[in-house]
Write a structure and sequence with these properties.
By secondary structure, the protein is an alpha/beta fold. It has a single domain, classed as Ribonuclease Z/Hydroxyacylglutathione hydrolase-like (Metallo-beta-lactamase, Chain A). 36% of the residues lie in helices and 20% in strands. It is built from 9 helices and 12 strands. The chain has helices at 2-24, 30-35, 82-91, 109-112, 115-122, 130-138, 223-234, 252-260, 272-298; strands at residues 46-49, 52-54, 63-65, 71-74, 99-103, 125-129, 159-161, 166-169, 172-178, 187-195, 198-205, 241-244. The chain has a 7-stranded mixed beta sheet with strand order 1-2-3-4-5-6-7. A hairpin with a 2-residue loop joins strand 1 (46-49) and strand 2. The radius of gyration is 22 Å and the shape is globular. The relative contact order is 0.11.
Length: 299
């Protein structure tokens, strides 16, 4: 009997130790916060124009579009960012529980990671493209499904959005523009903002960088064709206001400084996006050339 008791205690202690180790083990995305501290460094939320607000961190963009009937949130940032995003929304005088729709630019952990928690906080409908649905619901990085370092908390998708379809909550309306390549379902969102009676075309661009993607072998089937189709689709885009999920892309720091100095239209800029998309297409073709050259050398 004594031996049985000792054995039971040993098993319980072993289970407790395993649980403690599991609790103490760092989350896979903690390393990204360490190497990219701006991604988790909170910043003061502010109004960009009309009913569009910045509620993200210093290094990752998250956007709130408000209406009298509820609000729309684009992206969730890192898993660590969910609380800060909700807090920023509160700072602006709004309530996370009034967010009715969650949108995603693309299924990478630094932009989709906070969506699960934000969905639970708000009760909002999660809307995404079919191309990114599996990655969002599986919590993985397409093409690197077994790499836990690129994982994200899985979030269920309630509605699939197609190219050209709209999401509307009250007077807030956004249109989905599929721009795949960076991910299979990369989605850019557009809307019209009104400031002092004048309309402005607003673009929330997904991404077109190669970044961690492999072009050869392909990260996913059709990735090269997707990138090229996106560059063809966007080459003539001239939004009045260009926003993106990393503030550096749309020069947020300098524009916010100008806004705080009295320039109410500091974010109106029709030059930055076309110049950027041209650079990204050149960078893509260069990356593809290099990837194919490596294969030719190894043969």
């Amino acid at each position: 009997m004594k031996h049985i008791v000792i054995s039971v205690i040993a098993v319980l202690l072993s289970q407790a130790s395993a649980q403690d180790a599991q609790q103490e083990a760092p989350a896979p995305w903690d390393q990204w916060a360490t190497s990219n501290p701006s991604w988790v460094e909170n910043t003061e939320p502010f109004r960009i124009i009309d009913n569009i607000y910045y509620v993200g961190t210093k290094g990752i963009g998250v956007f709130l579009i408000t209406s009298n009937s509820g609000h729309i949130l684009i992206d969730g940032g890192m898993p660590q960012n969910a609380g800060a995003v909700a807090g920023n929304i509160k700072t602006l005088g709004y309530d996370i529980k009034d967010v009715k729709a969650l949108l995603n630019s693309h299924a990478h952990f630094d932009h989709s990671g906070g969506l699960k928690a934000l969905k639970e906080m708000s009760g909002a409908v999660m809307i995404a493209s079919e191309g990114d649905r599996s990655a969002l619901e599986g919590g993985f990085y397409l093409g690197a499904e077994d790499n836990i370092n690129y994982s994200a908390p899985p979030v269920s998708v309630d509605r699939i959005i197609k190219d050209g379809e709209s999401v509307q909550i009250g007077e807030a309306a956004l249109t989905a523009n599929l721009t795949p390549g960076h991910t299979r379902g990369c989605t850019s969102w557009t809307m019209t903002a009104i400031e002092n009676g004048k309309p402005y075309d607003v673009l929330f661009f997904c991404s077109a960088t190669v970044a961690g993607n492999s072009l050869n072998p392909p990260q996913y089937e059709g990735i090269i064709e997707d990138y090229r189709e996106t560059f063809k689709k966007t080459k003539d885009w001239r939004p009045d206001i260009f926003l993106a999920n990393h503030p550096g892309f749309f020069k947020m720091t300098s524009k916010r400084a100008a806004q705080m100095n009295g320039d109410e239209l500091a974010f109106v800029d029709r030059e930055t996006f076309p110049a950027m998309i041209k650079r990204l297409e050149q960078a893509f073709e260069q990356s593809l050339t290099e990837a194919l050259a490596i294969e030719a050398t190894s043969e």
